[in-house]
Amino acid sequence: MPEPTTTTVTSHKSRTVSPYSFPSGVTKCLEETQLLVGEERLNDGELLTLDTGVLKDAPKLSVRLARSPIASIQEEWGLTAEDLSLAVLVEAPFLNLLDVELLKWPDPSATGEVVVFTDYQLPDWVQQAAGRTKVGVSALLILGREVEEPTIEWMPSHKGAILAEWSTALGVPSLVHWFTPMPLTAAARERLSKRSKCPIAEGVTLYVRCDGLLEQKSLEQALEVYIDEDLAQIIHAASPTAAVKAIESQIIFQVLSEMLDSMRDDAANAEELHPDSAGRPLLELLAKETDQTPEQVFEYLKVRGSSAEILALRSHLQALAGTTASAISAVRKGDS
Amino acid sequence: MSKLDALKPGEYPVVTMSAGKEYLDERRAVWVPGSSPVEMAGTDESRIQTRVGDGNYDPTAVAQLVSNLQALASEFPANVSAVQDSRNLFDLEAAKQTYEGLRGLPLAVLLDKDFWRYLTLHELFSIVIWRMPYNEKKEEGWRSNFGVGSNWPRCYPYKSFLRGQLIATVQERGYPWVDQSDVDFYDSHLFSSRNGLIPSVASALNTIRQDFTKSRALQPYVTTAVRYRATHATELLDPAEAEGVLRRYST
Question: Which has the least CB within 10 A, A110, A113, A320, B168?
């Protein structure tokens, strides 16, 4: 059995930091316990999972829990089924929105390897918030009551102790929410021309100014994106139709394509997209397009655009950006 | 017709980050230090764009909030930012009014940083710069109060809204609460940690805060709350249980 962690504090006294120590013990115990293998959405080693697929269609959530390790814990720790609870937490930190609920155990007499909880109704705000801000969803297997006399010295004994946790995030905002294209008006053209010391002609529909991704903390601080005035008006005034969404995406691809071109000329520019900089969301987008990790894409970018991977990526992005003209046409015609 | 008067159903006003930076520079350039917060209502709409969201945006709610905050500001000395007690009291009352004034707006609007920038730079600029006068030596931090710096949570109206929301939530649940006007209690002890998100823990910290004359003494309890949350779902504790835990492991 794992021993309780002991640490030395600055007052030169040694003390056991319980209850902070036991989670590692619990985790280890769970790892050593027989875990469910391969049943439906539960993978090898997973104690708990949560089905977020239903969020797209219905405001309900289902949580799946492996039964056998739960039974082992109960037996080893002398707990009854009522001592363990399953809680769901849903939160949107941007506005401090929080919903917490204990789920009812479905039919305690039922058998089978997986316990499925389906009675949780998501709060109304989730569907409005998902896509606009980060919404976190967690399922927690917890101790539902205080245990007066723990059967094992280090076992969790306080109400709310987390025995297992499964978390995910819903609705991470898309890139278009991070930098809103501004209208390229006559005044803006004049101002930007002066600033860049390069005239911006009437025919230019997209102008991007990147102000040091490395120095800035977020994309919206680092990037200024301007698009043709008429087009901007249509995009901002219209409902988010498929055509509007398509053009927003293609603006991003065009931005990325142009950034890649600049990196071909100067490898130092690649550092602008370092995974630890504000450029990470852009790297993540590139990674998604190429089934790579952001770090792998960054490594490709540093090879001055000569590797096969980066050539393929550039070609892919240019193809995507190349359809911008047809997307603009569709938006102007009001197609959806 | 004014852009703001011509809002269609579902539309709401926004100011983007880059436009906001320029708007702040413009407004600051003509702001006369020491001016009354009612003297500088925004009139230039060129930086404002509109966006479509779910639900109907009610501009009268914003107008009423501006009016209420101006009336509140008039009760405070002109040098409010230089007097700690005054600024703390103003912040507390402004937080309550900001939440009450905006709580009815559609969620899509409240989740949009660009709306908060519009609110700060166009509607509430005079109030915010009166409360947070220009500080050349700490310019980046100062700009954050207007939602165009590097520290978003410092955007003054947004921060006020969250503070007011927490107070209202705790009180609506009937949890123990005594208004604390010291800034550190909210900014350092609640909102810079997860504690501001959990009403029962916020209530417990509020109760313990009353044992002390200075909020600094609360720090060990705040640390305990954060550490305990790493291993326990404190969201499921009631305020008395949370207070018991914090006292037990902080002394």
Answer: A110
In angstroms, the Cα distances linking A265 to A259, A282, A305, A306 are: 10, 19, 9, 11
| pLDDT value, residue B158 | 97
Structure tokens at A209: 């100014």
pTM: 0.68
Determine the pLDDT at residue B212: 93
> What single-letter DSSP state applies at residue A156?
-
Q: How many whole angstroms separate alpha carbon A36 and alpha carbon A164?
A: 14
- Classify residue A47 by burial, with Cβ atoms within 10 Å: 0-12, 13-18, 19+: buried
Q: Hey, are the CB atoms on A162 and B231 less than 8 Å from each other? A: yes
Cα B137 versus chain centre, distance: 23
| A159 at interface of B, judged by CB pairs closer than 8 A | yes
For strand A84-92 and strand A135-143, is the pairing parallel, antiparallel, or unpaired? Answer: antiparallel
Tell the residue number behind the tokens 């710069």, with chain if given: B129
Alpha-carbon span B233 to A4, nearest angstrom:
21
Alpha-helical segments (H) within A2-140: 22-32, 67-77, 125-129
* DSSP E strand stretches across chain A: 6-8, 14-16, 48-51, 60-66, 84-92, 97-103, 114-121, 135-143, 162-170, 182-184, 206-210, 223-228
Any chain B CB within 8 A of the CB of A94? yes
Query: Is residue B242 over pLDDT 90?
Result: yes
Decide: residue A243, CB within 10 A, 0-12 exposed, 13-18 middle, 19+ buried. Answer: buried
From A327's Cα to the closest Cα of chain B, the distance in A is 20
Give the span between the Cα atoms of A101 and A84, in whole angstroms.
14
Inter-chain CB proximity B230 and A161 less than 8 Å:
no
**C-alpha span between A253 and A261 (Å, rounded):** 12
Cα–Cα dist B28/B126, whole Å: 10
SS3 B114: helix
CA distance B70 to B75: 9
CB contact under 8 A, A237 and B50: yes
Interface test with B, best of A167, A180, A216 (most B CBs within 10 A): A180
Please give chain A's pLDDT, 336 residues, in tens. 334 333 222 222 222 222 222 223 333 333 332 222 223 334 444 455 554 444 444 556 777 777 777 777 777 788 887 888 888 898 888 899 999 999 887 776 777 777 777 777 788 888 777 667 777 888 888 888 888 877 776 677 888 988 877 766 664 434 444 556 677 788 888 887 787 666 777 766 667 666 666 666 666 666 677 777 776 666 555 544 444 555 555 566 666 666 666 665 565 566 667 777 767 777 777 676 666 677 777 776 665 445 555 556 666 555 555 555 555 555 555 543
- Chain A nearest-CA distance from B211, in A, is 23
Residue A14 makes CB contacts below 8 A (sequence gap 6+) with A6, A7, A8
Q: How many CA atoms lie within 13 A of A176 on its CB side?
A: 17
pLDDT tens digits, one per residue of B204-228: 999 999 999 988 899 999 999 988 8
Q: Are B117 and B148 spatial neighbours (Cβ–Cβ below 8 Å)? A: yes
Answer whether A180 sits within 8 Å of B114, measured CB to CB. Answer: yes
